Amino acid sequence: MHIPVGIKSLALSLPSVIRTNDYYKEKYPDLVAKAEEKHSLSLMSPTDTSGASSHNVYELEMMPYLQDPFRGSVERRILSPDESSLKLECRAAKDALESAKLHPNEVDLIISSSFLPEQLGTGNAAYVARELGIKCAAWNLDATCASAPLALQTASALVQSGMYRNVLVTISCNYSRLIDEENTLSWFVGDGAGAFVVAPLEMNQGILGAKTINTSALCDQLICTFSEDNWGNFRPRLQLGKEMSQIIRDLVPEILLDCCKGASENAGITLDEIDYFIFCTPWAWYAKFCTRALGIDLDRTMNGYPLYSNMGPTMNVANLYEAARAGKISENDLVLMYGFGAASSASAIVMRWGDVALGKVPAGIS
C-alpha cells in the first residue's frame, strides 16, 4: 500500500560572494592565457581528445566545451571568510521549517549531508540541532553528490515506517575551502546549502519508487588530503585521480539509464510519464547529456550550472528549488530526481509533487 510521504517544504541558502569569470581573468591572467592556449585544464579533460565515440552521448555533449577555459561556468557562489557551510545549512533549515509552518520542536529527526562538514569526523547534524535548539535525533549521511535523493529516500522510509513524522534534511557543499584558488579546479565549483522537510502528504503524493547503485569504480579517484596553510593550520584538500575523467565517461551513461529506468519501473510508470527531471548538474553539458541519453526534451529539466557552477550535492536542491520557483513543477506532477556521487552511489527517486512551500529567494538571485 502506498503511504504518501515526501517533500513538504524546500529552501536554498547561498554565500554572499559571487565570482564571475572576470575575477579569474583579472587575478590570474597568465593562468587563463595558458589555459586558452592549450585548450586544456586539469578538470574533466579527456585522456584522449582525438574525438568522441558516436555511441557515447556524454562525450558528444562535452566536446563543445573543451576549448572554453571555464568549461561553461559563468558564475559561482563562494563562502566569505565569516561564512561557513554550517551557517548556510542552519539558515536553510530555519527557512524550510518556517515555510512548512513547523516549530523546531516538531522535528523528530535531522539528517545532514555535508561535503565536507565543518568538523571532520563528526558532521554537521548535531551542530544544526544545537543551533535550532532542539533535542531530536540528529545524524549524518554521506553519499557525495547523490546525497539529496538518498537523504530523501531515507527520510521518507523512516516517516512511512511510523518511527518519525517530520524529518528535516540539510545538504551543503564548501568546495572553495577544499580547493586553492590557484588550482584551475576552483574555476568550476562553488558553495551552497539547502534544506527540505519530509513529512506525510496528501493521498497518492510523495515518493513512489527509487533505484540506487554504487559507484565503487571511482573509489580511488576522489582523494581528500591535508596540507598546512600559511598560518600553520591543517586544511583538507580535494584532489581528483588521473583516471577519473575516463572512468566517468565510460560509466556515466550506463549508470544514468540503470537508475532512472529502474526508479520509474519501481514506481510503476515509464520515463515518458515523468513531467519533470531534476539532475545534479556538476558540468555545463550534463543536463543536455542526461536528456539526450534518456530521450527526453531539454525543457523537461533545469540546468542551474551557469548560475552556480558545481555545488556538489547542493545542485539537486538548487535545481529543484529553481524549477519549483519558476513554475516548472506543479502539484501532482511526476518528478524524477537523480544524483551521481563519486566513490559512493548514484540514485534516482520518483515522486508525485505535493503542495510544497518554498523558502525565501536567496540574495543575488533574480
Automatic annotation (TrEMBL):
Coiled coil: none annotated. GO terms for biological process: fatty acid biosynthetic process; secondary metabolite biosynthetic process. Residues 265-353 form the Beta-ketoacyl-[acyl-carrier-protein] synthase III C-terminal domain. This is 3-oxoacyl-ACP synthase. Keywords: Acyltransferase, Transferase. It comes from the Bacteria. Transmembrane segments: none annotated. The keyword Membrane does not apply. The lineage of its organism: Bacteria, Bacillati, Cyanobacteriota, Cyanophyceae, Nostocales. GO terms for molecular function: 3-oxoacyl-[acyl-carrier-protein] synthase activity. Gene3D superfamilies: 3.40.47.10. Pfam families: ACP_syn_III, ACP_syn_III_C. InterPro entries: ACP_syn_III_C, ACP_syn_III_N, Thiolase-like. Residues 141-212 form the Beta-ketoacyl-[acyl-carrier-protein] synthase III N-terminal domain. The keyword rRNA processing does not apply.
